[in-house]
Amino acid sequence: MVLGITDKMKLKKRKKSSRMHGRGSGSHGWGFRKKHKKSGHRGGKGMAGSGKRADQKKTLVIKLYGNKYFGKQGITSRKTERDKRKRINIDDIDLNVEKYWKKSGDKWEINLPEYKILGGNKDYQIKNKLIIKAKEASKTARDKIKKSGGEIILSANKRAEKNGK
Prior knowledge:
alpha/beta; CATH 3.100.10.10; 7 helices; 19% strand
């Protein structure tokens, strides 16, 4: 009688946990028993041990949060509130307009509802006609946009209404 390949093959592989039962395999493939007990084996749970001397977790933290995680950033007192508004220069918008936004007719429609548009480089002249919807804009940015034949639409602001602008 000739045995085929299927006759020699195991039809059902046992799970690792059941294969590791019995004497001699209390470690389940993790080496010495105490190596795989709790979170001390991997340097603590989660972000534990990611403080000043966190060399073993530095690569993970930098991958997740970038280089601004470690150390202090800036000098502030406890009461000081940082200006966290998002800003973008008009030159950056104009240079990358084809990458990120769509064209309608001869003008580019740009929607930046959370940004303040800044004038950027004094010497830079805008090449495209832009229609920008933004939260705020500086005077130089507004002038540059109007000069190039575009327009800027600012969202209604509570501060602007209070100041009577």
